Predict the 3D structure of the following.
Amino acid sequence: MAMAVDNENLQVSASEAVHEQPKRKWQSYIWDSLDKSPEERKFLFKLDCALLTFASLGYFIKYLDQSNINNAFVSGMQEDLGLYKNQLNYMQTLWTVGYVIGQIPSNLILTRVRPSIWIPTLEVTWTVLTFSLSRCNTAEQIYAVRFLVGLAESGF
Protein backbone atom coordinates (compact mmCIF):
# COMPACT_ATOMS: atom_id res chain seq x y z
CA MET A 1 0.00 0.00 0.00
CA ALA A 2 2.91 2.31 0.60
CA MET A 3 3.83 1.84 -3.06
CA ALA A 4 0.38 2.96 -4.23
CA VAL A 5 0.58 6.12 -2.12
CA ASP A 6 4.03 6.93 -3.53
CA ASN A 7 2.78 6.40 -7.08
CA GLU A 8 -0.16 8.75 -6.47
CA ASN A 9 2.16 11.43 -5.13
CA LEU A 10 4.46 10.98 -8.11
CA GLN A 11 1.56 11.28 -10.54
CA VAL A 12 0.31 14.44 -8.90
CA SER A 13 3.75 16.03 -8.81
CA ALA A 14 4.41 15.08 -12.43
CA SER A 15 1.14 16.58 -13.60
CA GLU A 16 1.83 19.72 -11.59
CA ALA A 17 5.26 19.99 -13.18
CA VAL A 18 3.75 19.76 -16.64
CA HIS A 19 1.26 22.52 -15.88
CA GLU A 20 3.91 24.77 -14.34
CA GLN A 21 6.00 25.02 -17.53
CA PRO A 22 4.74 27.50 -20.12
CA LYS A 23 3.85 25.97 -23.44
CA ARG A 24 6.23 26.67 -26.27
CA LYS A 25 5.14 27.29 -29.81
CA TRP A 26 6.27 24.69 -32.29
CA GLN A 27 8.25 27.36 -34.16
CA SER A 28 10.53 27.81 -31.14
CA TYR A 29 11.97 24.34 -31.79
CA ILE A 30 13.05 25.42 -35.26
CA TRP A 31 13.77 29.10 -34.61
CA ASP A 32 14.39 30.81 -31.30
CA SER A 33 11.40 32.38 -29.55
CA LEU A 34 11.14 36.05 -28.62
CA ASP A 35 10.24 35.51 -24.96
CA LYS A 36 13.71 36.40 -23.68
CA SER A 37 14.77 39.46 -21.74
CA PRO A 38 16.21 42.39 -23.74
CA GLU A 39 19.67 41.82 -22.23
CA GLU A 40 19.68 38.16 -23.24
CA ARG A 41 18.45 38.99 -26.75
CA LYS A 42 21.18 41.63 -27.15
CA PHE A 43 23.83 39.16 -25.96
CA LEU A 44 22.58 36.45 -28.34
CA PHE A 45 22.61 38.92 -31.23
CA LYS A 46 26.24 39.86 -30.51
CA LEU A 47 27.18 36.20 -30.18
CA ASP A 48 25.45 35.33 -33.46
CA CYS A 49 27.21 38.19 -35.26
CA ALA A 50 30.63 37.16 -33.97
CA LEU A 51 30.18 33.46 -34.74
CA LEU A 52 28.61 33.98 -38.15
CA THR A 53 31.31 36.45 -39.17
CA PHE A 54 34.09 34.07 -38.14
CA ALA A 55 32.45 31.02 -39.72
CA SER A 56 31.53 32.79 -42.97
CA LEU A 57 34.98 34.29 -43.40
CA GLY A 58 36.63 30.94 -42.68
CA TYR A 59 34.37 29.11 -45.13
CA PHE A 60 35.01 31.72 -47.84
CA ILE A 61 38.78 31.43 -47.39
CA LYS A 62 38.49 27.64 -47.41
CA TYR A 63 36.63 27.81 -50.72
CA LEU A 64 39.32 30.09 -52.20
CA ASP A 65 41.97 27.64 -51.05
CA GLN A 66 40.13 24.74 -52.68
CA SER A 67 40.02 26.53 -56.02
CA ASN A 68 43.52 28.07 -55.94
CA ILE A 69 45.17 24.98 -57.43
CA ASN A 70 42.87 25.19 -60.48
CA ASN A 71 43.67 28.86 -60.98
CA ALA A 72 47.41 28.22 -60.65
CA PHE A 73 47.26 25.25 -63.03
CA VAL A 74 45.56 27.32 -65.73
CA SER A 75 47.78 30.36 -65.12
CA GLY A 76 51.05 28.65 -65.96
CA MET A 77 51.86 26.13 -63.24
CA GLN A 78 51.34 23.33 -65.74
CA GLU A 79 54.07 24.64 -68.06
CA ASP A 80 56.43 25.75 -65.27
CA LEU A 81 56.45 22.38 -63.51
CA GLY A 82 55.85 20.18 -66.57
CA LEU A 83 52.57 18.75 -65.28
CA TYR A 84 50.03 16.68 -67.18
CA LYS A 85 46.27 17.07 -67.11
CA ASN A 86 45.57 14.05 -64.89
CA GLN A 87 48.02 15.31 -62.28
CA LEU A 88 45.62 18.16 -61.49
CA ASN A 89 42.97 15.53 -60.74
CA TYR A 90 45.41 13.73 -58.43
CA MET A 91 46.09 16.99 -56.58
CA GLN A 92 42.39 17.57 -56.06
CA THR A 93 41.77 13.95 -55.12
CA LEU A 94 44.53 13.96 -52.52
CA TRP A 95 43.09 17.13 -50.98
CA THR A 96 39.69 15.39 -50.77
CA VAL A 97 41.24 12.23 -49.27
CA GLY A 98 42.99 14.30 -46.60
CA TYR A 99 39.79 16.22 -45.92
CA VAL A 100 37.70 13.05 -45.52
CA ILE A 101 40.30 11.25 -43.40
CA GLY A 102 40.64 14.23 -41.07
CA GLN A 103 36.93 14.76 -40.39
CA ILE A 104 36.41 12.21 -37.62
CA PRO A 105 39.74 12.68 -35.79
CA SER A 106 39.31 16.44 -35.84
CA ASN A 107 35.83 16.20 -34.35
CA LEU A 108 37.08 13.78 -31.70
CA ILE A 109 39.88 16.20 -30.83
CA LEU A 110 37.26 18.94 -30.46
CA THR A 111 35.75 16.96 -27.58
CA ARG A 112 39.10 17.12 -25.73
CA VAL A 113 40.53 20.50 -26.81
CA ARG A 114 38.65 23.77 -26.70
CA PRO A 115 37.46 24.92 -30.14
CA SER A 116 38.95 28.36 -29.42
CA ILE A 117 42.36 26.66 -29.47
CA TRP A 118 41.88 23.86 -32.01
CA ILE A 119 40.24 25.77 -34.89
CA PRO A 120 42.75 28.67 -34.96
CA THR A 121 45.59 26.13 -34.75
CA LEU A 122 44.19 24.36 -37.80
CA GLU A 123 43.79 27.64 -39.65
CA VAL A 124 47.38 28.69 -38.96
CA THR A 125 48.59 25.24 -40.05
CA TRP A 126 46.51 25.41 -43.19
CA THR A 127 47.87 28.90 -43.94
CA VAL A 128 51.49 27.81 -43.54
CA LEU A 129 50.88 24.77 -45.76
CA THR A 130 49.19 26.90 -48.42
CA PHE A 131 52.16 29.28 -48.45
CA SER A 132 54.51 26.30 -48.69
CA LEU A 133 52.84 25.31 -51.97
CA SER A 134 54.72 28.18 -53.59
CA ARG A 135 58.02 26.38 -52.92
CA CYS A 136 56.96 23.04 -54.44
CA ASN A 137 58.89 22.05 -57.58
CA THR A 138 57.46 18.62 -58.39
CA ALA A 139 54.03 17.08 -58.60
CA GLU A 140 54.86 14.72 -55.72
CA GLN A 141 55.62 17.64 -53.41
CA ILE A 142 52.32 19.24 -54.36
CA TYR A 143 50.52 15.94 -53.69
CA ALA A 144 51.96 15.75 -50.18
CA VAL A 145 51.19 19.38 -49.34
CA ARG A 146 47.67 19.19 -50.77
CA PHE A 147 46.97 16.09 -48.65
CA LEU A 148 48.18 17.93 -45.53
CA VAL A 149 46.13 21.01 -46.44
CA GLY A 150 43.07 18.75 -46.70
CA LEU A 151 43.83 17.37 -43.24
CA ALA A 152 44.17 20.87 -41.80
CA GLU A 153 40.97 22.08 -43.44
CA SER A 154 38.94 19.08 -42.30
CA GLY A 155 38.38 20.57 -38.86
CA PHE A 156 36.65 23.63 -40.20
